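idk why but the lab printer keeps eating my pages so im just putting this in chat instead. protein + copper (II) ion:
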Amino acid sequence: MNEPIDRRQLLRGATLAGSGLALAAWMPAWAQSVSPGLTAPLPIVSGEDITLRIARQTMMIDGRPSKAIGINGTVPAPLIRLREGQNVRLHVVNDLDEDSSIHWHGLLVPTQFDGVPGISFPGIKPRSTFTYEFPIRQAGTYWYHSHSGLQEQLGHYGPIVIDPAGADPIQSDREHVIVLSDHSPISPEAIFRRMKVDPGSLNFQKQTLAGLLAGRDQPLKDRVDWGRMRMDPTDISDTTGAAYTYLVNGHGPRDNWTALFTPGQRVRLRFINASSMTTFNVRIPGLALSIVQADGQNVMPVEVEEFQIGVAETYDAIVTPVEDRAYTLVGEAVDRSGMARATLAPRAGMAADVPALRKRPLATMKDMGMDMSNMPGMEGMDMSGMNHGGMEYGSMNMRDPKNAPGVALNPGVQTISPMPMDRTGEPGQGLEGVDVFLSHEAPRPYFVGGRSGGREMDAGKTPINEVLATMKPRLHLFGHHHRFSEQDRQGVRSVGLDLVSQSYLVIDGESLTYQVVSSPHAH
Ligand SMILES: [Cu+2]
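predcted complex ->
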């Protein structure tokens, strides 16, 4: 007679016996729970001929299975490690039942291989293969992701590390890739639908009457003013920790992904924000972060205690932990609704204190591009007549073409800040209290760049656009590096910003004029 089998026991047994193997099955080695770092030979895909297979799969987050789309069976997708000067052929097999694609974020590639369906190629049909082929003309930290539907949200993203042709000017004893992302048990389509119906439906940090009575957040007058304008100062992130788990290399905060180091080592952390919607504030309490690269461009080292990373940005930081102890890597969502958490430790199984989530920031008039405190005679102005829709109420209308004479008012222009201003020297929303932060202005973290950026891109400057923002968009022109040069609107001082980047997080209420600089190499 057969013994009755306890299904739970069976599962438990299987989990215990096969935990190492099970992990290996859905996670690349550099992203497994405890990672020794990127060591040679690298547990990654490299060489001139690489095959990537896109397919649906399950991934485990904080011990719970979740639906995902991965590549070669893993989320994040495999680390692609290349060398400047080589050629690469990437055969992308689409095993999904829908179209897919891969966009190589920040790589200078011929147009037809940029991977944006409907623009540079038709996309990769189900059960078919597309081969990308291009020379590698740059070095640095980049990433790749789907440009089809909402697949990126489900895990279709991975890191790219390109080693320079010569010696790397950034010396380190060990490296780790830190892919930050957001993942939800709710399907991205359902989240999108919810956002369309009620943009604030996932915000559980709104102001309350109890808060008003206790003297928290905005005073009554501001609340009434903002209410009249139909603006919510707690609208910091659209999708929040109510729907998302924030991940480090595919691991939830409770998984405690651990990066190993030996005390005294210079450890290079390659941060990539591969999330769909989340801006992170990143810090490692007890360690200074020396930012040495931004969006793949080497920069003059800037030491910070915390930095903000927008969607699609990459930053490389050097940390030098000297103590024989664990440190917590905190990637706090900008609205403080949750955090990505990992540990840096000399040995596996260690953990440091995890700081509590800080108080969520409140948006200000400045964030809405309507700060008038610097304008004489306008301090006490009653803004109750302001309008968020399409009707005219003078220049404080949120979509008044007079506020952006150079912009054609087409359906792509959602809002125009009435009072945009230069905020490149500011720390970013939620970091107002931080002493040392990464600014886009002096000390010019982006300034050095140079290699694949600076020199090549000096020719043929063509100003094509002006960007005005009230919500954090990411500026990203595919296949281009941008040079943000100057800003020149009524009374707004010139930034004189000179940075080369593939994406740039616009601070709320900031206005930027930028030039796209074409070179013979950038398509
Ligand atoms: Cu991208």
